[in-house]
Please model this.
Amino acid sequence: MTDRYCVIGNPIGHSKSPRIHALFAKQTGQDLSYEAILVPSDGFAEAIRAFIAAKGGPARGANVTVPFKEEAFRLATRRTARAEAAGAVNTLSFDAGTIVGDNTDGAGLVRDLKHNLGCDPAGRRILLLGAGGAARGVILPLLLENPTELVIANRTEETAARLALEFSRLPGCAVAVKPDGTGFGRLAGRAFDLVINATSAGLSNAVLPLPTSVFAPRCVAYEMVYGRETAFMVQARDAGARVGDGLGMLVEQAAEAFFVWRGVRPQTAPVLSALKGNP
Ligand code: NDP
Model:
């Protein structure tokens, strides 16, 4: 019987996850199916139950995307430490009545930075822009890489301050750096080696009020949005930064989910090339 997986979200038509997981399955010889399911905003839990109960092979897992990651967190009967830290779940595993919630977004970002972009966060001054779900999911994985500094800047300054405070108290975690939370207006004169845009400003091509000083010499600028050249990417490139977009993070978080489900780590480079060659 073929194991069944899916990605659930709204909207979902644009999702590249079915294609990515089909390529992973082919490459690793795993027998599985993976479908995209569009769910109304009030229908997430019901959709998961229906997917688990559906006929065919056993339902083994689901990826969860906007706007259901917090609801998936609440639905999980058990959660991994990284899901707890993120406060959101993007990967569910189903096993004998248990629903395990995990979050692979942070691991995906860190792998993309280190393995695809040659940018090790260790020893770097990091500026994280945004304080929404995507930012929250990557803070702990970034802190665990031992940067020298992590500043979270957000349009709504209080949200950044709250997030920084929350991640300053991490009992049981070997984290040397305490993040700082601030507003864009307070970044003048400050410089960073890695600037990560985790805002959704790029989706509306809004320009962030960032001083050029934030891009230190040899800075890497990372845009989580993919598939378009955003105002942030243009600004960073003009300031001399090396620029990456979020396609690699998408593929790497999928590979991490595949590993969680199947115990096999797929090669991501050929999949990334395939997506870049034929978006
Ligand atoms: P949320 O809605 O949770 O948060 C949005 C964030 O963007 C908030 O911090 C918000 O600030 C800020 N923001 C929105 N518009 C503007 C603007 N015009 N100027 C300045 N700040 C703005 O979204 P997510 O955190 O879930 O997602 C953020 C982005 O990351 C999305 O574009 C998403 O596509 C991308 N993403 C990419 C992934 C990948 O694999 N590549 C994975 C996950 C996310 P405020 O608090 O002031 O409202």
In short: The pocket of NDP is lined by residues 105, 130-135, 154-156, 159, 198-203, 206, 208, 224-226, 246, 249-250, 253 (CB under 6 Å). The first helix runs from residue 17 to 28. The radius of gyration is 19 Å.
